[in-house]
Amino acid sequence: MKQWTLEERYRVLQGPEDIRDLHERISKSVYRQTYHVQPVTGLSSDPNGFVRHKGLWHLFYQWCPWGAVHGLKYWYHVTSPDLVHWSNAGVGMKPDRIYDNKGVHSGSAISAGDDLYFFYTGNHRDENWVRTPYTCAAKLGADGVPQKLPEPLFGPRGDYSEHQRDPKVFYVAERGRYYIFIGAQTADKRGCVLVYQSEKLLEGWQFAGQLKVPGYESFGGMWECPSIERIGGKDVLVFSPQYTKLPGRGESTNHNVYFVGRMDYDTLTFTPDGDYRYLDFGFDFYAAQIAPNTDDPDKAVMIAWIGLPDNHYPTEPEEWEGSMCLPRELRVKDGRLIQTPVKEMEALRGDAVVDEECAPAVPRPLPEACEMIVEPDDGDFDLSLFCRADGEGGLTLRYDAATRTAVVDKTGLDKRFNEAVFETLEMPLDRPLERLRIFVDRSSVEIFANDGEAVFTTHSYPTGREHHFAVSEGAKVKLWKLAASVKDDFVV
Fold it and tell me: Which of 46, 100, 235, 441 is catalytic?
């Protein structure tokens, strides 16, 4: 595996010709996705600036052009009319100011009237590589490219550690104010959220205080990518706690969790209705961002990075890595989030290639890009994806009816990765398993159990012999091939 020097990772992109050959090489990879947003070259990580503005969806992602490595970060821009068909729009923001000289880091967006605004972390480092994070803003120009403000909105607070980043901007109508949540770390290395407020978007920002979440004063060492949204009369707080191990998550120290509860802006207190829940039970899911709610107060839309910080994947030798998950509609039911793929995904279906009760454990061909609906009989249930023609190996899901727990195991895949972190994880269910809706793309799988009651996302890299599936006796399967919906054009 290539060993990257600091100079290589933080090289400045001079123009398209710097990476044209790289794109041509990686575009031939058998693992390039067909209906998931993916990097034009190099590494994609956190989703940024996810918003709907004047009928068009905008999404940016953290992008390091040079390879599957974290280095100098840009915002890369993609757009969609329907959250399904995505087109590359090129570099959205690049590190070209002194306050973001070592990276345009994660942030959010807000649509206000005819204008679209972006808030991000400017990653500045001095000659001794000491970091100073600035909260910065930009406004979408007539050319479709964000135009940065000449100066940051504000700098870091000295009474917290240097880890202050990922501004989430939102408006609270009943208070007539804008707020920014900043993911942060206290001086004694506890994860937290800093809150800023202003009556105007681009000026007047004042520190309001630290968000209080009773019972979670010492929960992880850094809270990345905070996001909050009101859904169905409830406040939903999402964030990614780092530097801690959590139950059922193997050796991973990076997670994505949420609370359903009530936000009090007078006291800056978020009171959860219950314990935290995992946003996704899978191996590869992080930095989820909720788009500002624009139409329906009972739902919101979320997207996340299929990947985890510090993990490594089989496409690294090809010099690219990462995807965005499918955009998901969020609803609150019985104190928890229900996640479902946006309905527009159904438009990608062709004719069903399987629609029957499958013979037990008899392998069937698995298309490289498809959607499956599996309805098992009552009781225990087994599903194998990417098994060989003889039914052996693959990614397996085994459901235990007595405990209402599905165990997903990737040890049977030819290409194993992140073995020391986790290869087997549980997905507990609140009620018996009735239905699985599964989206397979060339290097990812997303499993929605019981119409979004629980979700499991993972990367997968099947080899030439791993293109079959098998299910337990009595299970009904419907399977569609899915058309491509993401343009893998070279646009820089």
Answer: 46
